[in-house]
Design goal:
The structure is a single chain. The chain has one helix and five strands, in the order ββαβββ. It has one helix at 21-27; strands spanning 3-8, 11-16, 36-39, 42-44, 59-63. It has a five-stranded mixed β-sheet with strand order 2-1-5-3-4, covered by helices on one side. The longest helix is centred in the middle third of the chain and has 7 residues, at 21-27. The chain is globular and about 40 Å long. The model has no long low-confidence stretch (mean pLDDT 93).
Length: 69
Protein backbone atom coordinates (compact mmCIF):
# COMPACT_ATOMS: atom_id res chain seq x y z
CA UNK A 1 0.00 0.00 0.00
CA UNK A 2 1.44 3.34 -1.07
CA UNK A 3 1.32 6.20 1.43
CA UNK A 4 1.04 9.85 0.46
CA UNK A 5 1.70 13.00 2.47
CA UNK A 6 -1.06 15.54 3.09
CA UNK A 7 -1.59 18.39 5.48
CA UNK A 8 -4.85 18.54 7.45
CA UNK A 9 -5.57 21.70 9.44
CA UNK A 10 -1.85 22.49 9.39
CA UNK A 11 -0.73 19.04 10.58
CA UNK A 12 1.33 16.72 8.36
CA UNK A 13 -0.15 13.25 7.98
CA UNK A 14 0.52 10.15 5.90
CA UNK A 15 -2.47 8.32 4.46
CA UNK A 16 -3.06 5.49 1.97
CA UNK A 17 -3.11 6.79 -1.62
CA UNK A 18 -6.74 5.70 -2.15
CA UNK A 19 -8.10 7.75 0.80
CA UNK A 20 -11.19 9.87 0.20
CA UNK A 21 -12.23 12.90 2.24
CA UNK A 22 -14.89 10.76 3.93
CA UNK A 23 -12.30 8.07 4.79
CA UNK A 24 -9.98 10.69 6.29
CA UNK A 25 -12.71 12.29 8.40
CA UNK A 26 -13.88 8.87 9.63
CA UNK A 27 -10.30 7.94 10.54
CA UNK A 28 -9.98 11.18 12.53
CA UNK A 29 -13.39 10.62 14.19
CA UNK A 30 -14.65 14.02 13.00
CA UNK A 31 -16.98 13.02 10.15
CA UNK A 32 -20.19 13.90 12.01
CA UNK A 33 -18.79 17.17 13.40
CA UNK A 34 -17.35 18.46 10.14
CA UNK A 35 -19.48 20.89 8.16
CA UNK A 36 -17.12 22.09 5.43
CA UNK A 37 -13.95 20.83 3.79
CA UNK A 38 -11.60 22.72 1.52
CA UNK A 39 -8.85 21.00 -0.46
CA UNK A 40 -6.16 23.36 -1.70
CA UNK A 41 -8.40 26.35 -0.89
CA UNK A 42 -11.40 25.00 -2.86
CA UNK A 43 -14.56 23.93 -1.05
CA UNK A 44 -15.61 20.34 -1.72
CA UNK A 45 -19.35 19.72 -1.39
CA UNK A 46 -20.37 17.21 1.24
CA UNK A 47 -22.04 14.91 -1.29
CA UNK A 48 -18.66 14.54 -3.08
CA UNK A 49 -16.63 13.54 0.01
CA UNK A 50 -17.05 9.79 -0.57
CA UNK A 51 -15.62 9.98 -4.12
CA UNK A 52 -13.04 12.78 -3.77
CA UNK A 53 -9.67 10.98 -3.54
CA UNK A 54 -6.87 12.94 -1.90
CA UNK A 55 -3.53 13.39 -3.64
CA UNK A 56 0.10 13.85 -2.57
CA UNK A 57 0.69 17.25 -0.91
CA UNK A 58 -3.00 18.21 -0.75
CA UNK A 59 -3.77 20.78 1.93
CA UNK A 60 -7.07 20.05 3.65
CA UNK A 61 -8.97 22.34 5.96
CA UNK A 62 -11.82 20.65 7.83
CA UNK A 63 -14.10 23.11 9.57
CA UNK A 64 -16.86 22.67 12.07
CA UNK A 65 -19.27 25.43 12.93
CA UNK A 66 -19.86 26.39 16.53
CA UNK A 67 -22.88 28.45 17.46
CA UNK A 68 -22.54 31.20 19.99
CA UNK A 69 -23.52 34.66 20.86
Amino acid sequence: MKLIKIKINGIDKQIPSSTTIKDLLEDLNVLEKTMAVAVNMKIVKKDEWNKFTLKENDKIEALNFVGGG
